[in-house]
Amino acid sequence: MKRIIFLFIMIAIFISAFVFYQKKVRYNLVTISENKVYNSGVVAPGKLPEFLKDHKIKTVIDLRDGEEQTELNPETKKQVGAEENAINKISDVNYFNLPTDQIPQDSTVQKFLKIMDDKKNYPVLIHCHHGVGRSRLFSSIYRIEYENFSNEDARANARYLWELSGNFSKGSEKGKYLLNYHKRKH
């Protein structure tokens, strides 16, 4: 019995360490397309210059609003502004703030696609607060539009672990959005 308890404690410590590392050290960074598109959570303004340089990022798309604080959107307008100010001090890096709800308006998606259509903007970092919801949704739209992923493949790649895990399951709002997303006609 002591071995089982010890095993569970060790597993809990490992999972906690992994989550801490992923969120606080790596900022939930995911490579969507090597040297082109990255997805993350918020990076502290003081760490942005090094972070952006390390990944050769030319454009940051910030999906946060800062107007209304909720559990999913805890940042304030001041925090969003601090990031913009920090990025504006870095030469050759563009900053776009595209505030969006968990399910975006068509007008926001069109603004996003206009940014992504400009090859001079790459490599691009797409981020929201946690790096697992809105930014993954927009990264999936990127995959559908520019990498010819099927809607199902883009949705499946956005999931965190398995089919029934929240955000991008087939029955979730984001999962349904991606499955019903209509690619532009070129």
Automatic annotation (TrEMBL):
GO MF: phosphatase activity
Lineage top rank: taxon: Bacteria
All residue ranges annotated as the Tyrosine specific protein phosphatases domain in the record: 110-159
InterPro entries: Prot-tyrosine_phosphatase-like, PTP-NADK, Tyr_Pase_dom
A Pfam family that the UniProt record links to this protein: PTP-NADK
Family as reported in the entry's similarity comment: Belongs to the protein-tyrosine phosphatase family.
Protein name as it appears in the record: Dual specificity phosphatase, catalytic domain
